[in-house]
């Protein structure tokens, strides 16, 4: 099996997940190409059996490069096994997982794919209060800090909500689909 993992990232969180997916697929004897969507505008996907498309979510949106990839390759993707994943704050708390699944995976699949993906992955994010962010993040960050304080967590420290064991198990299942 030959797989393409194409991802979009703003702060590196999706990169880490894409790299781990690549590592696990290689352990499962899959030939893998790992591509940052921002770095590769043109991509021939005809040689791939499996295409994994992922993105970090910022302000409720996929990265522009991954959305462009989905739109540009809609017909070609209909002839392949497709998987979608995102890393976002909605996965950090049980109460927002269903909303995140619908908004960032189910709706994106309906709007941009002809066939349903064989799998979707909603993975936790990384909260880094020291990362360079825009004005809107600074405003939202106030509520994030309050929520962290309610949970007894230090809002001035970095928090990684990615569950690596879950990501690895999810990836291993892709080879059985």
UniProtKB/TrEMBL annotation:
GO terms (BP aspect): heme biosynthetic process
Superkingdom per UniProt: Archaea
Pfam families in UniProt: Flavodoxin_5
Matching Gene3D superfamilies: 3.40.50.360
One function term, GO molecular function aspect: FMN binding
SUPFAM superfamilies in alphabetical order: Flavoproteins (SSF52218)
Domain Flavodoxin-like: 3-175
Name listed for the protein in its UniProt record: Flavodoxin domain-containing protein
Source organism phylogeny: Archaea, Methanobacteriati, Methanobacteriota, Methanomada group, Methanobacteria
